[in-house]
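Field log, afternoon session.

UNIT: design team B
ACTIVITY: writing a sequence onto a fixed backbone
BACKBONE:
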């Protein structure tokens, strides 16, 4: 069974329980995204809305906000701007911010080891999305990894209401453009952001080149970097987890880093952390 290798590595005595609410939720999102193929639900304005919201939720929310700013504290922003990025990420509907950030920190603590909840050694499917279909033991450790945000009232608000916020967004899109805006701006966009994010857990631990010895399977994968605004330079990230910049070579396009750099130029990003690269940082393709 899918969970059996993970069950053995974490040495728990009973099978992992399927997480049916998550399974049904993800299944429903993917099902309703199929309505994008209905002819009268396609128009270029709806596609444009989906692309804009993909950037808003995937880049500003997940990649820049939840990941580099909050999970790794790669730079700092005014608190109001941090909360804005938490809001953007909450509209990605990838669990609550405290859970997402806690699980990400947990992953870095045990990357590709027995306790890593999306350990890539257990296969592409498991690391991509299979792990979400079960009640994983890692969730029991969230408190240890989220002490800096767990009592923040704004984080707690988005923890409780990220699903209702998605419904409010859907109502707004319906008012602006009808069902085509809802199908593309919510369901198609969510599926796209989901799989782009999940490729960082799966594909960038399987495909690409390694520039640094990071103690895990992380790799730099150009096509994931294009889909995720720079997150695909994953071996660089695992080697320098604190760095706000993931694309460390001139050809490693990192849109999120360019955004952080723009924020720094106008005084909205400070204490920006970067690696001190030496001669040993030149990529080697393995």
């Amino acid at each position: 069974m899918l969970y059996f290798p993970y069950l053995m590595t974490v040495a728990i005595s009973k099978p992992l329980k399927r997480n049916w609410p998550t399974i049904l939720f993800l299944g429903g999102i993917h099902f309703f995204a199929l309505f994008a193929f209905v002819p009268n639900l396609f128009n270029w304005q709806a596609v444009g809305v989906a692309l804009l919201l993909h950037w808003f939720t995937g880049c500003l929310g997940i990649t820049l906000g939840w990941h580099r700013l909050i999970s790794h504290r790669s730079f700092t922003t005014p608190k109001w701007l941090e909360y804005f990025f938490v809001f953007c990420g909450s509209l990605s509907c990838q669990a609550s911010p405290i859970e997402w950030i806690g699980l990400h920190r947990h992953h870095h603590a045990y990357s590709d080891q027995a306790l890593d909840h999306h350990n890539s050694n257990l296969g592409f499917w498991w690391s991509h999305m299979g792990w979400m279909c079960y009640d994983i033991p890692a969730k029991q450790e969230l408190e240890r990894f989220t002490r800096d945000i767990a009592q923040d009232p704004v984080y707690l608000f988005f923890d409780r209401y990220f699903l209702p916020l998605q419904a409010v967004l859907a109502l707004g899109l319906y008012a602006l453009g009808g069902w085509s805006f809802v199908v593309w701006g919510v369901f198609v966009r969510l599926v796209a952001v989901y799989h782009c994010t999940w490729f960082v857990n799966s594909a960038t631990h399987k495909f690409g080149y390694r520039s640094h010895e990071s103690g895990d399977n992380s790799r730099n994968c150009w096509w994931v970097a294009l889909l995720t605004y720079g997150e695909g330079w994953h071996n660089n990230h695992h080697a320098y987890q604190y760095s706000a910049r993931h694309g460390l070579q001139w050809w490693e396009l990192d849109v999120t880093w360019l955004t952080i750099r723009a924020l720094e130029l106008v005084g909205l990003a400070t204490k920006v952390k970067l690696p001190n690269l030496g001669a040993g940082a030149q990529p080697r393709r393995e």
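LOG NOTE: The two ends are 32 Å apart (CA to CA).
NEXT ACTIVITY: expression trials, pending approval
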